[in-house]
Amino acid sequence: MSNALEAWLEKDTFTSNVSRGLISGVLGGIAGTVVKAAIEKVLPVRKPNTRSAQVKMVDDLSMQLTGERISESNHELAEQLVNIPFGASLGATYGYAKRDKLDTNILDGLAYGATTWVGTHETSLPLLGLKDNPTEIPVRIQINELIAHAAFGITTEIVRGIIAKKLRD
User: Fold this and answer.
1) Domain total for the chain?
2) pTM exceeds 0.85, yes or no
3) Range of the domain at 148
């Protein structure tokens, strides 16, 4: 890292705190997304033969651009093309909110992950027609989704805290 950038990030000003918060949050959000995706490989997070909201979005875009649906073999890639930028932006928001806090608090991450789950899977995605209504989804699948999102939030917080401290020191 250049000396000027190091000096900038070591300051305790609003703009340097925001910069640290955004950088550490984005990286934390990406790490959280990777962990969430790994958990979703083990724990089923949707009913069998159900396309994910991410695949539905990319499929719709593909239909508008090319007139063709994405192939089944590209569904996993399509999910990550949505998940990674979304996770990074959620991480940036979280990092900004915690810009003045260098310490790691696992409960903050847990709360953020649970809030993310409620804000997406329990409300926004069903309202947009990208996912079934929560009352139509088995409880076990909802618990698995909550676990994956809790891990996203906790991982985001741990990585954010580590990187924020490193950038400050």
Assistant:
1) 1
2) yes
3) 3-168
